Amino acid sequence: MLHSCIKDQSEGYSGDKVPYGNKTRTKIEGVVLEYGTRKPLANVMVFLDETHYAPFSGGGTFYPIDTTFTDTEGKFVYDFKHIPDEDHLFWDYQVRTEPYLYYPDEYEMESGYQYKNKELIVEPYSFIRAHIKNVNPFDDEDYIFVSIGGATGESFKGRNIDEINIFFLKGNKKIKILTRLDRNKIETEKIDSIYINGHDTLDYDIFY
């Protein structure tokens, strides 16, 4: 990671960014927080990504060029000399983190500026272990659709359904559970909501 002794130019500044290093350098000071609790995450890897692309090409693909780790307060700093844009080639940069058992977050920067107190907020994995069982079968055309947490959902058909399914979710939030049942040509729909903590696994019965 490249550091600099360039003076902090943000004194008295209250906006999103301020020109930095005569716009030949880019600096970002950020923190990685857990969604819902705002708990700072220590010793988490933060990537500095770069991409380049031709004008009117629709952009390029980011690839990592450096890594650093958050401190005990979840904070990190990048201070680097960026590649300036040219007439035929543009360069962009972002910071990104993908902590273990969290969904990733990233922030794209405009080169030549200093950014302060930028938050990367990562949502923790959570799981629901759903027991789906047809306890009142009518015939082999019995059908139920299950969607948990706004996911695409899964369908089950038959009189002998008795399955355990694991649904991957984002924790520290309230989620909706939708079931849509079609039995004996009668359709019924039910919506339930539950709160799930980060990194938790909840058991949930869907008996129909």
How would you characterize the overall build of this protein?
- The chain folds into two domains: 18-122, Sandwich (Immunoglobulin-like); 125-207, Sandwich (Immunoglobulin-like), CATH 2.60.40.
- With 208 residues, it is mostly beta strands.
- Residues 1-14 have low confidence and may be disordered.
- The protein has strands spanning 18-19, 25-34, 45-53, 63-69, 75-81, 90-97, 105-109, 113-122, 125-133, 143-148, 154-157, 162-170, 173-183, 186-196, 201-207.
- Helix content is 0%, strand content 55%.
**How many domains, as an integer?**
2
**What is the helix content?**
under 10%
Would you tell me the structural class of the helices and strands?
A: mainly beta
Give the CATH superfamily of the largest domain. Carboxypeptidase-like, regulatory domain
Widest sheet, order of strands = 1-8-2-5
CATH topology of the largest domain: Immunoglobulin-like
